[in-house]
Amino acid sequence: MSKVALVTGAGRGIGRAVAVHLSRAGHRVVLTARSHDELEATARECAGEVHVVTADLLDGGVETVFEAAEHRFGPVDILVANAGAAVSAPLAKTTDEDWERMLALNLTVPFRCMRRAVPAMVDRGWGRIVVIGSVASKHGAPYVAAYVASKHGVLGLVRSAAAELARTGVTVNAVCPAYVDTPMTDTSVDTIAARTGRTPEEAREFLAGRQPIGRLITVDEVASAVLFCVDNAGVTGQGVNVDGGAVQS
How many of the other CB atoms lie within 10 Å of CB of 121? Predict the structure, then answer.
């Protein structure tokens, strides 16, 4: 049955792939991100009904996006909170601004989206919430303290919400990928190359080697895991690893 799906950070990368997969599964999809041009490119790849809402979720955009979705299609049935970012710095050089930005975008924005989506889902007795976490939700790593803290927080939020909503028909899960072949990983490659003297190709090979399968995860593999969480009512409170065997949990 067709549902209304809202995907944040839908302009590129994982968000674009998730939106395309949801649309091809027959759902009506609301796309949001800050870049209108990127959202339009995503919309062109989608099947069926799609609505584009350009917004900055850090600047009061959550309510705007939900109101636009409800006006166009009705209440949101499926929320995929994908918008996020990463920053890399030694702990002693991590600024307050970097710390606060990671927590705001990677943790507070998903919380606000979930808080806004849950009441209508509970009223209808059906809902699916999937937050894009990370293997950094499961273990620490050097030079990314702010990012890891925010992603650990997201998994805690998911687990708590899932426990609270377990008897309502609403499931809450996280999908936790390793390094994915996305523009965000391209930024990591550039950072590694600049700091270590490796070539970009060597830096990319280094990141690929962090997964036991020896390659980067694809956006379609992450999107398939999201659809698994959407389609399976018996799965809730989980952090589903899509990491090539990096974290065996």
Answer: 24
**Which of 35, 16, 34, 13 minimizes the C-alpha distance to 24?**
16
- Looking at residue 206, its amino acid is F
pLDDT tier at 111, thresholds 50, 70, 90 = very high
Catalytic entry in 147, 149, 158, 238: 147
State the residue for tokens 């490119």: 41
In the block, tokens 């584009």 appear at: 52
Question: Catalytic residue at 147?
Answer: yes
Q: Are residues 81 and 140 in the same domain?
A: yes
* 121 and 149 both lie in a single domain: yes
What is the separation, in whole angstroms, between the first and last Cα of the chain? 32
Question: Is the whole-model pTM more than 0.85?
Answer: yes
Same domain, 107 and 207: no
Range(s) of the domain holding residue 204: 179-216
| C-alpha to C-alpha distance for 208 and 202, rounded to whole angstroms | 10
> Does residue 185 have a pLDDT over 80?
no
| Residue labelled with tokens 């999107």 | 223
Residue 11 is classified by DSSP as T
Dihedral angle sign, alpha carbons of residues 20, 135, 81, 3: positive
- Reported as a single tens digit per residue, the pLDDT across 77-96 is 999 999 989 888 999 999 99
